[in-house]
Here is the input.
Amino acid sequence: MERMRIADVQDMIDHELVSKAQIAAKIEEAAEQASKDYAGKAPLLVAVLKGAVNTLAAFSQAMSIPVEMDFMSLSSYGSGTESSGTITIRQDLSTDVRGRHVLIVEDIIDSGRTLAWLAEELKRRGAASVEIFALLEKPSRHEVDVDVKYHGYVIPDEFVVGFGLDYDERFRNLDSIAVLKPSVYQGGQA
Ligand code: 5GP
Ligand code: MG
Ligand code: MG
Here is the structure.
């Protein structure tokens, strides 16, 4: 069976923003740096479900040192697709982070609220260090200061899908990152 490609959903895609090759290049660059920084530290890579799963898979495979991985599911209540800062844990890590060097691998930072909360929470639990890799950042919308150590791409304030990111649970398996046509949002929340 063939992979889903942008051509297959072309009527819904406005344009491709970050290509498959660009995603891979940026992840490899960051993972190479992180492999040096975390040498001998057995870092714990943490991803927030579900959006960051693709990024974590690619990032971990691009690292040249042994790592552990764990996942967390969070919900943030707010209006529409804006996160509110009131975060609830739906599914917690199975790892005790006390004394661990944690690297949060994130798909996208929008307001920064989810990530700011998570970084604080992991520090509260006694992590030896907490750093962040973010594949995408929308800096024009940052409301909370988040200290990102490994940067990916800065993108405009547009709603994007693909490489783990969804609209209404769809488009996660696109292998690149794209902007949807506004017509897709008509009648839905965007
Ligand atoms: P924040 O707390 O930074 O506002 O929320 C970040 C989360 O909102 C991301 O992890 C992602 O789930 C969602 N999000 C923010 N911007 C986008 C976007 O452009 N597309 C998609 N699909 N999700 C987004
Ligand atoms: Mg995310
Ligand atoms: Mg989503």
The mean pLDDT is 91. The CA atoms of residues 10 and 35 lie 37 Å apart.
